[in-house]
Amino acid sequence: xxxxxxxxxxxxxxxxxxxxxxxxxxxxxxxxxxxxxxxxxxxxxxxxxxxxxxxxxxxxxxxxxxxxxxxxxxxxxxxxxxxxxxxxxxxxxxxxxxxxxxxxxxxxxxxxxxxxxxxxxxxxxxxxxxxxxxxxxxxxxxxxxxxxxxxxxxxxxxxxxxxxxxxxxxxxxxxxxxxxxxxxxxxxxxxxxxxxxxxxxxxxxxxxxxxxxxxxxxxxxxxxxxxxxxxxxxxxxxxxxxxxxxxxxxxxxxxxxxxxxxxxxxxxxxxxxxxxxxxxxxxxxxxxxxxxxxxxxxxxxxxxxxxxxxxxxxxxxxxxxxxxxxxxxxxxxxxxxxxxxxxx
Length: 344
Ligand SMILES: Nc1nc2c(ncn2[C@@H]2O[C@H](COP(=O)(O)OP(=O)(O)OP(=O)(O)O)[C@@H](O)[C@H]2O)c(=O)[nH]1
Ligand SMILES: [Mg+2]
Known about the structure:
By secondary structure, the chain is an alpha/beta fold. It is 40% helix and 10% strand. It has a 6-stranded mixed beta sheet, sandwiched between helices. α5 links the parallel β2 and β3. Magnesium ion binds at residues 195-196, 210, 216-217.
């Protein structure tokens, strides 16, 4: 199998793809399926898994075998330059992480920009309503042990939790927060983690566009929270040449544009993780998959349980993969966190 396959038809990506690719997602995946040996092999594996009743284990792709997921739309480069200029002019960085992937969603470039100018960080593990509370606690301990960092977990869907955010920032910059010297806070983070939602929730009105699509915010926006505090919302930032394991978690959690990956590949890896760490939640949602089931087999199992079939009665793996991803993303599967903090 190949390692770095230019999957993309998106003109915003680093790697340009042939112009003949269709513009719809389904069309693109179909064409990619014909073009891309990796995806075809993956489909073969899943189909094989689904054609026998016991969901057998199939050889799991190693990171080297995985397709590269490399999503870096044009606006991100400009956004990073803008952040580089602005970060030295704020007092506190509010870094929004996705509580379901608190390590993978921590952009190393944001961390280095911030530490370079010596600004403290409030790390907000957002979407805590979707995350495993035990693991959230462990991640908070991990981040709170870092110098210049305060970490909290919230859900932007809960106004009572959102309202505390400025109070957490005050002690991080004790010489600011007056009318003459307002506390300047900047919200940073990867796409689709809830930065704009937090901004709107704090201002109690929709001042910026927010929605369930990575890359929605394209420009910085500054607003006055009160005469003593200002807040800047920024576009989501990713970094190039991301580790494939990190990219798969971010794709599963919908922080990477859908046109940069095949749902099936991401769902197979998500499925393997869930089988290992959250089997009871899978059973609750789909019934018990058989003991020896792996990620490929799970997709086939979901197709079977949901009656997702294509012509000839074969499982519709694309729709089943989408269903598993949706169930994880919306929380229908339960509260899940895809990683634990590194040992101390
Ligand atoms: N369940 C849940 N969903 C949330 C939470 N916070 C935000 N969301 C949802 O996450 C999606 C993304 O929110 P945005 O605020 O647009 O994310 P963003 O980080 O500004 O995204 P970009 O502008 O693309 O970088 C929206 O559908 C929000 O409703 C949360 O705490 N819990
Ligand atoms: Mg936004």
